[in-house]
Amino acid sequence: MTVSSTMLDGAQDAPSARAAAAVGQASNSIRFDGVTVAYRGTVVLDHLTLEVRPGEILALIGPSGSGKTTALRAVAGFVRPASGRIHIGDVEVTHLPPYARGIGMVVQNYALFPHMRVTENVSFGLRAQGASRDLIADRVRECLRIVGMESYAHRYPRELSGGQQQRVAIARALAIQPRVLLLDEPLSALDAQIRRSMVEELARLHRDLPDLTVLYVTHDQSEALTLADSIAVMRDGRLHAHGPTGPLYQTPPNRFAAEFLGRANLLPVVIEDAGYASPLAQVRIGGLVLSATPNRSLDKGAQALLCVRPHALSLSPRPDHDNVLPTTVHEVLWQGDQHVVTVEVAGTVLRVVSPPLRQPPAIGSTLDLHFAAVDASLLPDEDHP
Ligand SMILES: Nc1ncnc2c1ncn2[C@@H]1O[C@H](COP(=O)(O)OP(=O)(O)OP(=O)(O)O)[C@@H](O)[C@H]1O
């Protein structure tokens, strides 16, 4: 499943070549319109409608088996949808063969040709397209420069580390100048430290190539939050949430998205004032009223979940923190660069992440938490619809 072997092998017939040229000319968005994929009658991608806008990185995240790779393979042309349509730019590619779609692809296990040197691996797609020697030399040099691998051009894959092999795989995918780059868990075979530096490199790569549209499949929410302009959350073959990264993290639309995008404290509350006439909603927990960012789908009297991220809860008052929540301390953990304090309020356990504390609170003591209404969003309580 490599870009070189599977997508570029073989001669292109004339209509496919024309379509490929058209894909190259059109704007470089990726659009799924009601795409359904089934394996032996089992639906694994269910009416996916989603757009990756030109030049953005969209991270497709979700648990194992949620359909992320299937969606990406449908764009690549390795999976044929049972229904729905896929466009790259203005061109419908649903029925085009993989090599005619104008895409680059990088998968988890590098998939470099072991018997070819780095240069030959990177130039493979261009050679299959019949590009001139001068063009190939220029492109290979440029792509190896982009991924910082110029000085390894004559090595074989076995002479490279995992991170270096993945850089070569990225250079190979970029060599054909794709409008769209598909990345399927590209970092998951690497150890944690190299993964972090590769995330930074991918962010730099995207700054260097701002027109490149990237569909990035990962199950790692921190990679998605770091790299992506927008995030789509999948579950059981369905799209569960989609939006720009910051707002989606800050105001997730449902419990699954809130918890999949990072640690979320979810406190059951009742809507006291939905906030239609004011910038903030008011919610009640026991005898206490707190303010939060309104959710237009939640009316007065509805049961809801107040969502606050652990680092948005503070142990001391701040001028912009308008909410005070009295709690009881359950546990205090020092983790070097931070303290994690677990507290309880009205039967719900909350997690607070704080910079290291000189005087951590005692277990069993009462502790006021402070937080800003803008850091508190409201979700429907699916257990009490
Ligand atoms: N070729 C296939 N034949 C039959 N079932 C398949 C095939 N490929 C994938 N599936 C099934 O489709 C569902 C979705 O798989 P997919 O690989 O898209 O999930 P994913 O979200 O990418 O998971 P992971 O994070 O584990 O890679 C799974 O239940 C999987 O078992």
UniProtKB/TrEMBL annotation:
Would I find Translocase among this entry's keywords? no
> Which one of the record's GO molecular function terms can you name?
ATP binding
Question: Which Gene3D superfamilies does the entry link to?
Answer: 2.40.50.100, P-loop containing nucleotide triphosphate hydrolases
Q: Which InterPro entries match?
A: AAA+_ATPase, ABC_SmlMolc_Importer, ABC_transporter-like_ATP-bd, ABC_transporter-like_CS, Mo/tungstate-bd_C_term_dom, P-loop_NTPase, Transp-assoc_OB_typ2
For the ABC transporter domain, which residue ranges apply?
Answer: 30-261
Give the record's keywords alphabetically.
Answer: ATP-binding, Nucleotide-binding, Transport
Q: Which SUPFAM superfamilies match?
A: MOP-like, P-loop containing nucleoside triphosphate hydrolases
Q: What is this protein called?
A: 2-aminoethylphosphonate transport system ATP-binding protein
The source organism is: Inquilinus ginsengisoli
